[in-house]
Amino acid sequence: xxxxLETAYIGLDCTQPGAVASYLQDVIGLMPGDPRPGxxxxxxxxxxxxxxxxxxxxxxxxxxxxxxxxxxxxxxxTLARLHKTEVACTPLSAAQKALRGVQEGVAMATPWGVPLxxxxxxxxxxxxxxSASFPDGLVTxxxxxxxxxxxxxxxxxxxxxxxxxxxxxxxxLTDFLRMPIGGGADMNVSFFHCNPRHHSLAIGFIxxxxxxxxxxxxxxxxxxxxxVGMAYERALQARTPLANAxxxxxxxxxxxxYSVSPGGWAVEIGATGxxxxxxxxxxxxxxxxxxxxxxxxxxxxxxxxxxxxxx
Length: 311
Ligand SMILES: [Fe+2]
Description:
The chain is α+β, with helices and mostly antiparallel strands. Helices cover 23% and strands 35% of the residues. The chain folds into two domains: 5-122, 2,3-Dihydroxybiphenyl 1,2-Dioxygenase, domain 1, CATH 3.10.180; 147-307, 2,3-Dihydroxybiphenyl 1,2-Dioxygenase, domain 1. It is built from six helices and 18 strands.
């Protein structure tokens, strides 16, 4: 598979950057990155100098995300596609490029409301990635940072997001989900790939007048289920709220759990994610998120109470 793009980074606006930093280091297990003026802290997941930026702000949401082109030709091809589909791209300023540590880059608005940056030439770190939480590292080689999931509240924004991802960025639809959520409404999610990772980006649509938070979750993919289990235990021991208990997704087969950051967005840590190739034909509709598990905590609590032996 010829890889043109991969997820590169995320900038997070935080009302409590210190609390988010502790969460990323102690619960998730990321490694501190290079200090940067203009960022409260930066974080690493692999051999790149920075992958996550925290900045003090008012939103508790994603401030920007980055997709990196595999080389300068892929960067030019993606720019040309964006231009053809009339997506307005603004070159990153010298200060923005220095903050991100990239050689080239442009920023653009997205239909899901979080600016996206197309970049080339991420800075390599001076030291190898080392985290006691992930001694074997994370899955990033040829697949990038992980995946991002955003939420929109209208059918128009959902359709525009799909068109932006496919026609503008050149991502491919992997599969999609449609699931009743009560009151006659459906939740829809489209999953997009641009390299072997099942999805690098997903856009969810839940009908609502205003989306409380655009970023639903960030995913970090690890190499073994054991690393997921150990992260799960870290989250439990740190009394970090869970969004979803351990489970396995129906479409990408990922065994994962979701914890809630101090910013209110979630982090999914997972392993065994399905990969896709040029011969991908399984672009089907799913009617469920998970094959097992992923219960919200209140449901799990009820199940555990029911299953406890009577004293
Ligand atoms: Fe996910």
